[in-house]
Amino acid sequence: MNSALVTEAVAARDCRRHAGTHDMTLFLKNSFGKEPFDTLVGPVKDRGPASGIITRHGYIVAKWGDPNRADIVNSVTKTFLTTVVAWRGRRA
User: Exposure pattern of 46-70 as b/e (b: 16+ CB <10 Å)?
Assistant: First the structure.
């Protein structure tokens, strides 16, 4: 791997900060507040700052933020799941 390109990729994340609110209660009320049964049930944790990890051949090449922090990811869940399923299917 080209370490300069990895460094550039990690630095580029600062240019793509989430423009929306980190207050998840406000986000959920704005997104679903007009739906029936819109009352929040259970705890809501505010969205954290950006974090991530780059791996290659099982080794951590770079990481930033707190990759161990659990966060609501909504739409990206499908992308991660299909990537894992496709990868596992190739190895079977």
Answer: ebeeeeeeeeeeeeeeeeeeeeeee
